[in-house]
Structure formats: C-alpha cells, structure tokens
Amino acid sequence: MKRIALILAMTAAPALTFAAAQNTITFTGQVSAQTCAVAVNGNAANPVILMPTVSAAALNAVGSTAGETPFTISVSGCTAPSSSLAIKTAFLGNNVTSAGNLANAGTATNVQVQLLSETGGSAVVLNGITSVAGLTLSSGATSASHDFAVRYISEAGAATAGTVSATAQYALDYL
Q1: Residue 136 near residue 145 (C-beta atoms within 8 A)
Q2: What domains lie within the chain, and their CATH numbers?
Q3: What percent helix, strand, coil does the chain show, rounded to 5?
Q4: Average pLDDT over residues 81-99
Q5: Residue ranges of the Fimbrial-type adhesion domain (predicted)?
Q6: Kind of pairing, strands 144-154 and 64-76?
C-alpha cells in the first residue's frame, strides 16, 4: 500500500509542476492623483446600450454596417486639474473577432458589434486592452463627457435575423 502511495505521489508531482507553470494570472492597475465617478448614458453600474432593430438586408454585404447608436461616457466629481487633462477610455472586449469587433452572443448570424471612437467616427479595433482618447477634463473643471458609438457590422455578409448581444469592459486611464 505504501508503494502505491509513493508511486502516485511521484507521478502527480510533475503534473502539478506543469499545471502551475501554465496557469499564471497577471493583475494590473493604476495609482493616480486623479479619480472620477464614471457613468455611461447616466448609469453608473451595468449600463445597457439599446441598439435599433435593423433589417438583415442592410447587412448583406461583407463589411456592411447599420444601426449606429451613440452613447456617452461621462466623468464627474473629479479633482479640478490646474491644466487640461486628457483621460483615455480603455475598452476590453469579452469576446472579440479577429477583425477587432465584438462577437455576437445572440442568435443572429454573421453580425458583430463595432465600437466607434465617436459618433460618425472611425472604428476602434479591439485588440486586448484598447485605449481611446476623447475625454478631456478642462482646467478647473470637475466633469467631462465624450460621445462614442456602436453599430452592427457584418464581417462575412449574409446576415440572418435574430438577437444581437455583445459585451465589453471599460476603465479610465488618467495617465
């Protein structure tokens, strides 16, 4: 019985060593002189951006887009800076396509969600944590806002009807 326990212990040790080497967690963050309360469309927690219903025919070609929807990220309660402060919004897509769009978790096929740097602006290619400029806290100000936008995009064309749902995390970068 002791031999079996010894053999099991000897064979399990390399597996535990291998598992530990492959499972690294990296924690990142910032310490900043500036912090603010953040809201998306006035919601401080769990914001939802309601996009319009569009026709599948509007997304029938590769790269076609529809349903652009603005949303506002605002900061308040900031410490008033002595000079203008550029604040970046860092986005992290929870499920991103190879083209840098948010993958659809809903039932519509060949439909993704594309983040835009501003209303009518350029596409933000999500590749890991992606920082986007736009928020500027003016000298002496304690609040600011910036309008971003999202839209449907069909990376492959031939979209089919169904639901669309995509998520991204966000944080502010004061540095």
Answers
A1: no
A2: 32-173 (2.60.40.1090)
A3: 15, 35, 50
A4: 95
A5: 25-174
A6: antiparallel
Write the CA distances from 100 to 21, 48, 51, integer angstroms: 29, 21, 19
Instruction: Name the CA radius of gyration of the chain, rounded.
Output: 22
As a whole number of angstroms, the distance between CA 147 and CA 118 comes to 5
Distance of alpha carbon 68 from alpha carbon 57, whole angstroms: 16
Cα distances from 20 to residues 7, 11, 17, 25, 26, in angstroms, run 21, 15, 5, 11, 14
Local confidence band at 136 (pLDDT 50, 70, 90 cut-offs): very high
Cα 119 to Cα 175: distance, rounded to the nearest angstrom: 25
**pLDDT tens digit string along 102-122?**
999 999 999 999 999 999 999
Mean pLDDT, rounded, for 87-91? 95
Strand partners, 40: 43, 73
96 closest CA partner among 23, 169, 6, 42: 169
